[in-house]
Write a structure and sequence with these properties.
With 364 residues, the protein is α+β, with helices and mostly antiparallel strands. It is 38% helix and 22% strand.
């Protein structure tokens, strides 16, 4: 419990102690941060308005530290306006209780979030165990356009070795929402290839109406961080096409930019500053939203597509890929990816990296 008012600390502490909880008290954010690191509590009750560092700032620091990022935080504050509540939840709080507090409410919420936290830890352990078994299995079967006709996509995929580190998937989130995913696990060979099975399983688990695109990427990253070898990482691009709203939502994690080509042949690259998954405890993700029209196409790909023909010059390679997408805008979707690859590479089989290019058309 963190509060600069001794009376408030004593009140909440007495309520919890009476029910058998073991409690620790801190009077400011700096003290709370040190105690959280050393004691690893199961839950933090955090005041917002404190001298020096606010509770929001303390929460941000705790969530950015790998040692404390998973500890659930409930805000207790006299600030009961909607803006404050939303701010607290956005920066990582799991709940927000307005002061003056009521003993029954505090107990109920503490118990709920402790149960959720315990269940999540159990699920995470079970999930890690399952993914370790998947890592020793063959690469998951990749979805084909005929398996998901409503998605209106085609793909060109040629791994450098028998088991490549590039991966893609397409799935229906609901009848009007389709998700497209492309990823590149650093390295090649059997280890990288087997990890794609884990990525596929995580993508299916974290894709659904209850998860935002950012939630999907964070869910994948949180588990893959435990799976990847030291200095290994994952770049990815996750796209949701919502036919109801005619919108495209794109989240990138250190991945080359999505290319959008309008039905009229005008191209745009959705550049985003972001970090790969796996290198850091929390990756910086960015999201871009864009409206589409019927006949617009968008292209997801891995870096082999923009580096193989230019000796690693990504800027030149991206320009070449964009021009190839424009030239082939009216090529049949079923074979457009093969045509684009042929435009860029005279001998794709001799490319020094995995090649993956996915094209999808807005079916609105």
């Amino acid at each position: 419990m963190v509060d600069d008012t001794p009376m408030a600390l004593e009140l909440v502490q007495s309520v919890l102690d009476a029910e058998g909880f073991h409690t620790l008290a801190a009077e400011n954010g700096a003290q709370a941060t040190e105690m959280a690191r050393s004691h690893q509590p199961d839950l933090i009750l955090l005041d917002v308005m404190m001298p020096g560092e606010t509770g929001f700032e303390t929460c941000a620091r705790l969530k950015s530290d790998p040692a404390t990022t998973d500890i659930p935080i409930i805000f207790l504050s006299a600030l009961d306006d909607l803006t404050s509540k939303v701010t607290g939840l956005k920066i990582g709080g799991v709940d927000y209780i307005s002061k003056p507090v009521h003993a029954e409410e505090v107990l109920a919420r503490v118990r709920v979030h402790l149960r959720i936290h315990s269940q999540n830890r159990t699920l995470l352990r079970e999930q890690r165990a399952r993914l370790e078994r998947l890592r020793d299995a063959q690469q998951a079967i990749l979805v084909r356009p005929e398996h998901c006709p409503d998605a209106r996509f085609s793909v060109y995929y040629r791994p450098l070795e028998e088991a490549g580190g590039d991966f893609y998937d397409v799935l229906s989130v609901d009848p009007d929402v389709v998700a497209y995913f492309v990823a590149d696990i650093s390295g090649h060979g059997v280890n990288a290839g087997f990890l794609t099975s884990a990525v596929k399983a995580l993508l299916r688990q974290y894709s659904g109406p209850m998860f935002s695109p950012e939630d999907t990427m964070r869910g994948i990253g949180s588990v893959m961080r435990q799976m990847l070898d030291e200095e290994q990482y994952l770049t990815a691009c996750y796209v949701r096409l919502n036919r109801r709203t005619r919108s495209l939502s794109v989240v990138s994690a250190g991945h080359p930019p999505l290319i959008v080509v309008s039905a009229a042949g005008k191209a745009e690259t959705l550049d985003m500053e972001s970090e790969p998954l796996g290198l850091f405890s929390t990756a910086v993700l960015q999201r871009r939203d864009r409206r589409l029209r019927k006949g617009d196409r968008f292209y997801l790909y891995t870096d082999g597509m923009i580096e193989s023909a230019t000796n690693g010059n990504r800027r030149t390679g991206l320009a070449q890929l964009v021009e190839a997408c424009i030239r082939n805008q009216h090529h049949p979707l079923e074979s457009v990816t093969r045509s684009i690859v042929g435009d860029i590479l005279a001998e794709p089989a001799k490319a020094p990296d995995d090649l993956l290019l996915m094209a999808a058309e807005a079916n609105l």
